Amino acid sequence: MNQERVHTASPDFIAQANIKPDDYRRMYRESIENPDAFWTNVAKRLDWYRFPTDIRDVSYRPDDLHVRWYQDGRINASVNCLDRHLAARGDKTAIIWEGDDPSKSERISYRDLHARVCRLANALRNLGVKKGDFVVIYLPMIPEAAVAMLACARIGAPHCVVFGGFSPDSLGTRIADCSPKVIITADEGLRGGRPVALKANVDKALQRPDTHTVETVVVVRHTGNPVNMQSPRDRWYDTLVEGQPAVCEPEVMDAEDPLFILHTSGSTGKPKGVLHTTGGYLVHTSFTHEVIFDLKEDDVYWCTADVGWVTGHSYIVYGPLANGATTVIFEGVPNYPDFSRFWQVVDKHQVTIFYTAPTAIRALMREGEAPVAKTSRASLRLLGSVGEPINPEAWEWYHRVVGEGRCPIVDTWWQTENGGILISAIPGAIPQKPGSATLPFFGVEPAIVDNEGKVLEGVAEGNLVILSSWPGQFRTVYGDPKRYKDYFTTYPGTYFSGDGCRRDADGYYWITGRVDDVINVSGHRMGTAEVESALVAHPRVAEAAVVGFPHDIKGQGIYAYVTLNAGEQPSEELRRELVAWVRKEIGPIATPDHLQWAAAMPKTRSGKIMRRILRKIAENAPEQLGDTTTLADPSVVQTLVNERLVR
Ligand code: WTA
Q1: Alpha helices of 206-304 — where are they, by DSSP H?
Q2: Which of 175, 245, 467, 507 places its Cα 20 to 30 Å from the Cα of 593?
């Protein structure tokens, strides 16, 4: 593998870069040696009602765990994303929307976006939404998604965005977790020309008794296809905002007031509502967005993520808009109408900065260079990657074919819990090695520990922890402080990421993937436990174990082992039914790639499933099974090996 190849930005790029090589070293040192002074300075980039003086109040000690940034500051996120740009950037395009249908697009100026946000914020207040009330947002990638988030921020109502690809049940679980009064959705979404029944899914989710707090469902008319509207609960978005004033007094928030929760998967149990607060999150996302993407006033910036994930929150909505940038919202998919779509959109809107996931790069790479080559892409100057490790081959292809060797690539490592990027190249300042996220961002002190928690120095491989705090760090797991604490008790006194990592002789970090029971499928984080509980919810299933396995396009695929109830017979029909069942229970992203019947699971004598063995079988590495003598019944393994589905 070509891991040690170093790419340095061109002299032209470096000459115009915001951060030069010497700046990086100096600023990093300052951020570590004197964090309060450093982060006071950075906070000046935002407009505060009261500028903070209490910069950092953090303890990772399990008996006194707390993370607070800028706690005496007062601020409103929507004002920072909108109002403060009106004087100089009122006519500048804030959002370029590109529809799933290539004939549909729209440009929204900062002035117009401000008015739309204010109208919806007023409408939400009229519906009784007050500071501190949750609002669930379940929308496709349309401008209203950003409008809804900012309208919530304006009135101090924390939002909880649910990815539009999630099933009614996954949506219901998230609604039940935060008890909103209002849900904002659309009649339907559109992806690759196919409708997604969002409103119908909401109707199903609201049949659950634990979602009874919802009083109003606001429905955006998007595809215009007929949907069931239940009076008085369901209200059309357009009639609701019609006639509302285009100004709305913002709520003055404490820096530590919640801005949103966003659910993500852990290794056990149901999804965790990761809670982010206002001041620190906005400082961190806007600052990283400017520095890591080398942002300039006339850039057209496009992040292809969905607002249902943290990348969409931080790097489609809050970071870019706080910076007064032009941000693209894309409703579609990379292969519709054809595999040139991304690059056609780049040409159409003259995109200069493009940020996507390795899984998309690999899928496009498989189609060859022709779909890329027939587009210009001359506007591009910087590329980014996020969500999973990028293999060096995909990195080189992205660099050579998409960027024609001209564009630096920032491989950005971070997590829902982190709020924003923690390890990444800064283009122009940090040379890149394909496959490495390179060096820590300002204020971030990564460390690698062994399984006993010993900090390893120099060249090392182990578990990635962070010793320091950063402003965009999550503040709790909503309603579950115990699960928050877990992050800081595995290796006491540090934040444990759940990722494995290696550090090379240049101090560069190479993320090797999750070391817990979380898998990363096409850049989507998933708990194997969630897929297992969906499977065992099927009446004919007795037991299920789910592991990840290496997948050429998705990074990791989903491999399920299923034991049926006594008396049930495996069949191809039942296999298909179970795969479809998981899809329906969680959503299409959780569809198992392989489902293997297991007459019995490999278990320890105390009854614990030995996943290490199941992982090796799924990886088609039966020679690496290791010690199986602790199994209650070692013969189980041979049957599973013989019947394995990947060879
Ligand atoms: C993985 C997405 C390698 C990692 C922003 C992490 C990465 C999980 C990278 C978080 C990267 C994200 N290189 N791995 N550049 N970025 N990951 O919460 O395993 O959806 O723990 O946040 O994605 O996924 P999440």
Answers
A1: 237-241, 279-292
A2: 175
480-514 pLDDT per residue, tens:
999 999 999 999 999 999 999 999 999 999 999 99
Pairing of strands 409-412, 382-386: parallel
Residue bearing the CA closest to ligand 1, atom 6: 415
Predicted TM-score of the model (pTM):
0.97
Helix (H/G/I), strand (E/B), else coil: 508: coil
Which positions ≥6 away from 562 have C-beta within 8 Å?
535, 541, 543, 544, 578, 595, 596, 597, 598
- Give the pLDDT band of residue 571 (cuts 50, 70, 90): very high
Nearest CA, atom 20, ligand 1:
525
Please give the distance, rounded to the nearest whole angstrom, from the Cα atom of residue 555 to the centre of ligand 1: 12
| pLDDT at res. 268 | 82
> Is residue 193 a known part of a binding site?
yes
Mapping DSSP to helix (H, G, I), strand (E, B) and coil, where does residue 481 land?
helix
H runs (alpha helix) in 246-336: 279-292, 310-312, 319-322
255/51 Cα distance (integer angstroms): 10
The rounded Å distance from CA 525 to ligand 1 centre is: 8
254 lines ligand 1 (CB under 6 A): no
For ligand 1, is residue 31 a contact (CB within 6 Å)?
no
First-to-last alpha carbon distance for the chain, in angstroms, is 23
Q: How far is the CA of 514 from the centre of ligand 1 (A)?
A: 9
pLDDT number for residue 86: 98
Q: What distance lies between CA 623 and its chain's CA centroid?
A: 36
Nearest to 222 by CA among 202, 242, 192, 197: 197
Q: Which of 316, 477, 499, 510 to mutate to test the pocket of ligand 1 (most atoms within 8 A of CB)?
A: 499
427 has pLDDT over 50: yes
Cα separation, 399 vs 478, whole angstroms: 40
Please state the length of the chain.
647
Q: Ligand 1 centre and the CA of 309: distance in Å? A: 11
pLDDT-based confidence at 1, cuts 50/70/90? Answer: very low
The encoded tokens of residue 565 equal: 């109830």
Using alpha carbons, list the distances in angstroms from residue 2 to 190, 212, 461, 500: 40, 55, 19, 20
Q: Taking a C-beta distance cutoff of 8 angstroms, is the pair 461, 438 a contact?
A: no
Q: What percent of the chain has pLDDT over 70?
A: 99
By alpha-carbon position, which residue is closest to atom 22 of ligand 1? 415
Residues 6+ apart with CB under 8 A from 103: none
Check residue 4 and give its pLDDT: 67
CA angle 637, 638, 641 (to 5 degrees): 85
Q: Is the distance from the beta carbon of residue 433 to the nearest atom of ligand 1 less than 6 Å?
A: no
Amino acid at 14: I
CA of 414 to the centre of ligand 1 (A): 5
Residue 147 has pLDDT above 60, yes or no: yes
Distances in Å between the Cα of 460 and the Cα atoms of 444, 456, 464, 496, 502 are: 18, 6, 11, 17, 6
Q: Which residue out of 311, 409, 415, 441 has the highest number of ligand 1 atoms within 8 Å of its CB and is therefore the one to mutate?
A: 415
The pick from 359, 388, 410, 589 for probing ligand 1's pocket by mutation, whose C-beta has the most ligand atoms within 8 angstroms, reads: 388
